[in-house]
């Protein structure tokens, strides 16, 4: 587990990632060279496709994630939430915690439901989901109350 002044990151070894986001600027870190620049429509479609896949058999995936699958699905389908958080910024903040060879996973912003914030147990940050097998590869906690 890596700590910094502003964030607490939980690292899980991952072998392949695809960055599903509209990225800007140079991605100079070796782990980021495989990132794909996607237009916003493609990005949303891939996030919604992941949500559909999770929805189709949520029970079998629950053990693969820290947070309830229904909360993850809600975030994947929340276009406004995803639009407010830039992947390029997350990659810059978390690049030192990435595996060297990463090519095939989805990054998206996760925010726990409103009731968790009202009860002082809210969490938010970047989740990295491996496509095969479908599981949480990493969660970079950025906000908690």
Describe it for me?
With 145 residues, this protein is α+β, with helices and mostly antiparallel strands. The chain has one domain (2-144). Helix content is 34%, strand content 23%. It contains six helices and seven strands; from the N terminus they run E-E-E-E-H-H-H-H-H-E-H-E-E. It has helices at 40-56, 58-61, 69-77, 79-84, 87-94, 114-118; strands at 2-3, 8-10, 20-21, 36-37, 105-111, 123-130, 135-144. The strands form two sheets. Strands 1-2-7-6-5 form a five-stranded antiparallel β-sheet, sandwiched between helices. Strands 3-4 form a two-stranded parallel ribbon. A hairpin with a 4-residue loop joins strand 6 and strand 7. Helix 1 (40-56) packs antiparallel against helix 3 (69-77). It is globular. The two termini are 19 Å apart. Residues 1-36 have low confidence and may be disordered.
């Amino acid at each position: 587990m890596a700590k910094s002044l502003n964030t607490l990151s939980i690292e899980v070894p991952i072998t392949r990632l695809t960055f599903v986001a509209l990225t800007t600027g140079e991605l100079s870190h070796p782990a980021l060279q495989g990132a794909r620049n996607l237009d916003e429509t493609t990005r949303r479609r891939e996030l919604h496709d992941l949500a559909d896949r999770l929805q189709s058999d949520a029970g079998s995936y629950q053990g693969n994630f820290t947070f309830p699958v229904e909360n993850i699905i809600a975030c994947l389908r929340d276009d406004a939430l995803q639009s407010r958080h830039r992947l390029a910024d997350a990659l810059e903040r978390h690049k030192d915690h990435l595996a060297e060879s990463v090519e095939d996973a989805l990054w998206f912003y996760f925010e726990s439901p409103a009731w968790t914030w009202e009860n002082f147990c809210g969490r938010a940050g970047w989740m990295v989901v491996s496509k095969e097998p479908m599981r949480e590869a990493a969660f970079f906690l950025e906000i908690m109350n």
